[in-house]
Each structure stands twice: as C-alpha cells, then as structure tokens.
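2024-03-11 09:14:02 INFO receiving multi-entity request
2024-03-11 09:14:02 INFO entity count = two
2024-03-11 09:14:03 INFO echoing inputs for audit
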Amino acid sequence: MGVAIQAVGLSKWFGSGETRTQAVKDVSFEADFHEMLYIVGPSGSGKTTLLSMLSGILRPSAGSVRVEDVDLWALDENSIADFRLHKVGFVFQDYHLFNKLTTVENVAIPLILRGQNWNDSLAAGQKVLEVVGLANRASLRPSKLSGGEQQRVAIARAIVSAPDLLIFDEPTASLDGDTGRKIVEFVRTHVLTDQRCILIVTHDDRIYEYADRILKMEDGRLIGSEKGGAHG
Amino acid sequence: MSGILRIGYKLLVNDRGKFIALLLGITFSVFLMIQVTSMFAGMMKKASATVTNTGAKMWVLDPAVTNVASSIPLPDYVLDAVRSIHGVKYAVPLYSGAGLVRLKDGTYQAVSILGLDDSSLYGRPVLLQGQISDIYAENGFLVVKDEEFGKLHNPGIGTEFEINDNRGVIVGIAKVPASGLFGMPTLYTTFSRAIQYIPSMRYTVSYILVEPASEAAIPDIKREVAKLGYEILTEAEFIDKITNWYMFGTGMGINLLIMTAISFVVGLSISGQTFYTFVLENLEKFGALKAIGAKGRELVYMILFQAGTTALAGYGLGVGLCALLIALAKFRVRDYASIITFNNLGMALGMVLVIASLSSYFAVRRVLRIEPFDIFRG
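2024-03-11 09:21:47 INFO inference complete, emitting structure
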C-alpha cells in the first residue's frame, strides 16, 4: 500500500531551563495507507503531542515528519496550513462543531475553506452525511443531535475533503462503550480506504479490536508496537 | 474568501441574543451621537438664520461681533470706504436689531427687525403674499411666515400694530429658509424706517453686505477692509464664526463633547464587551478552524467582517431611529431645532468604525493567539 507517513527522531520539549520538560522523546515510526494505527498510553505519555506534530499542528523540537515524501516541517506556515486543509482530516475529542451552523454546513467547512463554492460544498457535505447515515439530520443544529451523531458529523467533516490522513483524538472519550465501538467499527468499514491512513489516539482498550497496529507510549517514548485486533 | 465570510455571518446572526445585544449597543450609541449633534446643528442653523436668509456673499462687521444677533454698529464712513475698494461690485447697509411690538389686543411681543438697503432691498426674502414695492409704503413691514408667525396672531396684509409707539402695517408675507434661534417673529422693513422706528446708537449700520466683482477679488477686499480695522467674512466664514462662538464661547461645545463621548463609551462598552464575549465563546471553534487549515488572516477577515456588519447595521438602525424621532418631534413641535447633516452622519460613522475596530482588535488578538494545539490539549 505504500508509506503514508514517516516520523524520524521526533522530539518535543516545552519551556526552558529548570522548567523544561520533554513531552516526546526521539520517536520514529511509519504508517501505511489503509492502515488504522492506534497510539495508546496513559495520560501525559505524549500521545497528543505526537499526534499534533504528525498532523502539522505543533512544530517538533527535533526530528522530521514526511507525508507522501514531503518534509512537512520544512514548509512555511501558510503551506503547512494548506497541507492540513488538503491532506489531513481531524476529529477532535470534543468534536468542536459550530452549534450556530446546521449539520451540513459544519460538514462542508473544509471545502468552504478550500474556496469551493458554497452550494457545491453543501451538496458534497450532504453526500457525506448520507455515508455516515445522517442525511436526514442535515438541516439540524449539532446541539440537537446525540453524542454518537455528533461524532459522526465530526467524522463527516473530517472526510468530506477526501484527506489522505485522518486524525482521531480520543474518539470514544465522550461516548458510551457500545456507541464508541459502533463508531470505530463504522470508521474501519467505511472510512478507511486504500488511499487513506488513520491515526487514532486513545486509551480506550475496548476499541483495540479494530486497530491494524497499536503503538504504546510512556513518558514520551515509544515503548512497543503490537498488532491490533483487526488482524485476529 | 466569500465562503468564510458567509460562515462568519451565520455564526454572528444565528447567535441571536448576542447579535441583538450588539445591534442595540451600536444603535443606541449612534442614536445618541446623532441626536445630540443634530440638535446642535439645528440650533446653529437657527443661530445663523439671518446670514443664510440674507444670502449676501460677504459681510463686513466689527471684529468683536461673536454672533449675528449681537451686532456692533459700524460708522457710516466704513460703508463709503468699502464701496471704494477695488473689486467691490456693490456694498449696502443692513440694520439688524430687536423691537417690541404692541398687538391689537394690547399684548407685547418682541420681534427681530431687519432693515434692508432702501435703494436695492438687497437680502430681501421671498414673498408669499403682497408686492415687494409696498415695503416703501408708509409704515410698511414684511412679516416672515415661520414657526414664530403665530406669536403675532397670524397677521394678514393690512394688519396694523405699534412698534415703539410708531404705527406699523403688514404689507407682505414672506418666507425664509431658516427661522431664528430665540423664538422671535421676524419683520423686514427698509433701512431708513428701521433706524427711524427703533432706538439706535450714534452709528446705525449693523452690517455691510458686500458683493465682490469676482472670487479673485475677495483676498484684496479682505486685506483692504482689515486696514480699516474691520473684519470681512464670506457667508460660510461668518456661519463658522457664529458656530465656533456657540461651541467654545458658551459651554455648549463642552456639553456636546461630553454627550458625544458618553454615547461613544456606551456604545463601545456594550458592543465591545458583547463582541469580545462572542469571540471568547467561539475561541475553541476558531482554534478548530485553524487546525483544519484556516489561515490567520482568513480568521481576521472573518472577525472584521462580523464587526463591520454589526457596526453598519447598527449605524443604519441608529440613523433611522434618530430620523424617525426628529420627524415625529417636528410633527408635534414645528420649530424643533434638530437637523441631521452629512457632518453628523460622517462623525457618527467614524465613531462607529472606531468602536468596531477596537472591539475587533481585542478579538483578533485572542484569535491569533489561540494555537490549534490548544484544541487538542483541551
């Protein structure tokens, strides 16, 4: 399938002098297209910091990230923003949906940011809502939806622009166990494609069965890698 | 770019509570600013009524004159001297004073009296009834039909009255662009009759009205009049002088400034605070937009658009409300002194844009400071 993302010697420290703390220490790994990769570990182990560096949000203190052979952190700030807009889809832990916009408008945001025509963006958003099973919720505000539905709206927003890399931050943290499993199963079945790599940060072991591979982190280091439940 | 502005617009107007609070803040502020300055403009129009109604291009006056109602009489030789200045097409005297009229029923009414140059009647008003030549008839006076007309018991042609124990007869009814500030009816007569009927000092010429031969001659005329020790002003300059005196010489200006400042502060505090709260409440969402790929400048445009939209909508509502109130007030009180001028509108627009700029400045600072990483960290 090919390498989707490659991290080499990634490190990140915050502060300086006595207050300096290192959140991520010399992390290297690769993730392939059509791979659903989990990054797991206890709170404070550096998962979110690593995910931020991989997705072009947080500049690493050392190391590099290559996405489809592009050295991400060699780009200027505007190009990195463009990279996120065109190559990455985000599903935030708290979803961060706009309650003052309709569901379909929320979904269409990445396309609108790309400069696509408003009506065309909404039409594309409507199609993706059909994929996630929320076509009949298009005109509702997100606040009218259940937690699971909001999560699916967030997924729809992340995939509407057909990104190569999907980033999930604690996707089941706000959901009950059954809904969480259904969501991740849905992602595994309908969202993961041959042209896409999915990175999920979680410490919810109930969804490990859907992972291709699980990277374990502790104190900012990768301490192990194992196959996920998706491979039996 | 239009897409993100549309998102900004929807975020703004769909947050009805805050949007209404923002609009109310700006509307109220604009309403107050325009109302106060319109009242001042209205009063200044009335204060300069004699100048505008007369329509003379230039006025010669004593330099100590502060407003048209308080004239300081000029020696007769000044009129001759001005007439002899190269570039003066013609120059005529004007009498401006006040008198006490005794009406048929025995009551007294103070009036403003203007005495026009006998030979030219330069500065005469437009007549609604009567013939202008009748002003030369014995005891002839024109009366201005304005808001104060009723104080003379609505006289008609032929109505008689007493003025300083002299008989007066209305021979014409006139109209003028503006009525005076002090609520007195206005009578016109000839210069010679005015100084005959009204007790005068040694000098009788209140002002000299000058028609320059050309615009180019004005600087020379001014220089020559200054040599005589007197001042000569164009109509606009005289109006400015009157306005400045009311503004800075009477305390009205300070009151105006205070009221305008209060309106500005009210608008800024309500709108600024509400807009800032609106942005703070959406700060994480802005961070999410940044994470998704929105650039900082796009978010800045979005915020400026939101602030600008609110400011202009509030401005329009404030102007409309003020115009409505003035129209209603004028419907009930005919000589209500309030007019909305382009200067008022421009000043209020400037203030509103300052409010919008300050509000959005602090909002933009917060939005630019939010890092997408903060969204991940929660």
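2024-03-11 09:21:48 INFO post-check: The longest strand of chain B covers residues 88-102.
2024-03-11 09:21:48 INFO post-check: The mean pLDDT of chain B is 89.
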